[in-house]
Amino acid sequence: MISMLSYSFMQNAIFVSVFISILCPCIGIFLVLRRYSMIGDTLSHASLAGITLGLLSSQNPILGAFLFTSLCGMLIEFLRSYFKKYTDLILTIVFSLSVGTAITIISSGKLRANADSFLFGSILTVTRFDMMMVLILSAVSVLTLVFLYHQMIYIAYDEEAAKIAGVRVKLINYVFSILVAAAIAVSIRIVGVLVLSSMIALPVATALQLGKGFKLTLLLSIVFSVIDIMLGLFISYYLNVAPGGFTALISVAVLVLVLLARKVPSGISAAIRSSSK
């Protein structure tokens, strides 16, 4: 363990992972409560187009992912006005746009760098500049969430009532789209595009099983997120596998363990009641 932490790339990876484990559930809890989990998945794939555009223009791929994913998030919000009853159709449109862009650029042979590490996640590719980008995006996102906290809770539980109450729902939804893009951009290096949405949704899904209030559920989501990402990072290092995929497996395993743990007390109490009759 000590020898592993002596490597600068592991130190960089741990630094980024800490911010991922805090930011993703903060964004994810609002997506899950609004039943928008698939938007996170669509925007995760949209980030691949941003990465390829960044690499194509010789810019930082994380910045490219953030900018393009922000545009896609705002496009989803814009299209909601035209497809109010067909959210899945909006996601298909944005998914087709982003994946089509990514495949076209990758297949053109004009990329000077390999985009594969962004698909699966790699602890070796986190640079100092990436760390600065992660720090800035995470700080701005968390501060924005704190500032809009009460309005976003109102919108998450009842968007129509929030509009009647005078909450600027449209504007906040656009801002939230950018926050989702930021969470995705900071997570790409470690987690990878293909399983990024699991980091946004699964810790929240695990915390929801405990049936607590909103604030405690958010805190538990962060705790589960830290457990998932850190275990995935350290164990994947020793197994020599991509951290993104293994972290997703850890997330599913933790969710299953929590579900089983909830079943055990109810099973014991049922057995006691039946034996007492």
Structure description:
- The chain has 277 residues and is mainly α.
- The chain has one domain: Orthogonal Bundle (ABC transporter involved in vitamin B12 uptake, BtuC), CATH 1.10.3470.10.
- Helix content is 82%, strand content 0%.
- It is built from 13 helices and no strands.
- It has helices at 2-5, 8-33, 37-56, 61-79, 87-107, 116-120, 128-147, 149-157, 159-164, 169-191, 196-208, 214-239, 243-276.
- Helix 2 (8-33) packs parallel to helix 7, helix 2 (8-33) crosses helix 11 (196-208) and helix 11 runs parallel beside helix 13 (243-276).
- The chain starts with a helix and ends with a helix.
Summarize the structure.
The protein is mostly helical and 277 residues long. It is built from 13 helices and no strands.
Layout: helices, strands, pairs:
Blueprint: H1 2-5, H2 8-33, H3 37-56, H4 61-79, H5 87-107, H6 116-120, H7 128-147, H8 149-157, H9 159-164, H10 169-191, H11 196-208, H12 214-239, H13 243-276
Main location: membrane
Membrane topology: Multi-pass membrane protein
Family: Belongs to the ABC-3 integral membrane protein family.
